Amino acid sequence: MEADIFEYHKDDNTVDAESFLGEKRKVIQPTSLKDPNLEKLKQALVDWINRTLKVEHIVVQSVQEDLYDGLVLHHLLSRLASVHLPVEDIALTSAAQIRKLELVLAELDKSLGLQDSSQIKWNIKLIHNKDLLATIHLLVAMVRCFQPELDLPRNVKVEVVAVEVSSGGIKSNVQTEVLTEENTSTAADSPSNTESEDPIEQLLKLEAHKVNTVKKAILHFVNQSMSAMGLQVADMDQQFADGVILLLLIGQLEGFFIPLCDFNLTPVNPSEMLHNVTLALDLLNDTDLQLSNVNPQDIVSQDVAATLKVLYALFKKHKEK
């Protein structure tokens, strides 16, 4: 009977028992694959990936089908953790994909702070074999680490068959696997979505004329601060992308002297721009300025929200002066 359960699932998911000889594996039950909550979670993860990688023109349609070769995970690692690995962007052969996944997953596990292997619910083989359960566990862990404010569907659970394959046969039992936790906090002791959301994220949901009004106020503040240096910003969305004006603004407001040898005054490539912006955010971090999930690469990519978050934080801190 146990073998029949596994074989039934094998037909739906093309599981090769021999390839997992000596291993333990969990496989989602066919009935759970049709659970609307699981579908919502999968779509939320796809939407998150596509928003994160929009500037790189990378689009995924399926968490199960589009992450196995390491390309998407590599780009997510680069953007979310600012870790840039010397690996080929597109790995065509299975061997090259596995080598790439080995490097990417090792860095991801490190960034996620997972030192205990018992906490890791994915591995190279599972991801490369398009294992849905392992892939979702990995992506949920990444969201929780890098973008904890993202509201994923809560209390998503699936029924799985836990399978152990050995030379003596197959052992299996049905278990419940938790993909996302239930929200246990009450309405009285947790802030509303509006209260907890970043003010810039709230702003960008308003009408365009209201957004422009705030941007003009911040731009006026920036140009007042930079007037002593004879500099003026006309396009807030673009002129901070290389980090030069941002560094000069921070130095002017915070009283820093930043040696010219520490940054690129005339950056000519994205790497030099990223160096400048990273230095700027590090300086702000040293002043204990609170910034909500700002990635240096986002500013280099001219992400309006990221740029506004930094400038708004400076504006809020120094406007009284």
What does it look like?
Keywords: Acetylation, Actin-binding, Cell adhesion, Cell membrane, Cytoplasm, Cytoskeleton, Membrane, Repeat. Plays a role with ILK in promoting the cell adhesion and spreading of leukocytes. It is a peripheral membrane protein. The protein has 321 residues and is mainly α. Helix content is 50%, strand content 8%. The chain has 15 helices and 3 strands. It has helices spanning 2-13, 30-33, 36-52, 71-81, 94-111, 124-128, 132-146, 193-196, 199-203, 208-226, 236-239, 244-254, 270-286, 296-300, 304-318; strands at 24-28, 157-166, 169-178. Strands 1-2-3 form a 3-stranded antiparallel sheet. Strand 2 (157-166) and strand 3 (169-178) form a beta hairpin. Helix 4 runs parallel beside helix 5 (94-111), helix 10 crosses helix 15 and helix 12 packs parallel to helix 13 (270-286). The radius of gyration is 24 Å and the shape is elongated. The termini are far apart.
Helix % is 40-55%
Please state the overall shape, judged from the principal axes of the Cα atoms.
elongated
Question: Which stretches are low in confidence, meaning pLDDT under 50 for 5 or more residues running?
Answer: 1-15, 184-196
Distance between the termini: 76 Å
What gyration radius follows from the Cα positions, in whole Å? Answer: 24 Å
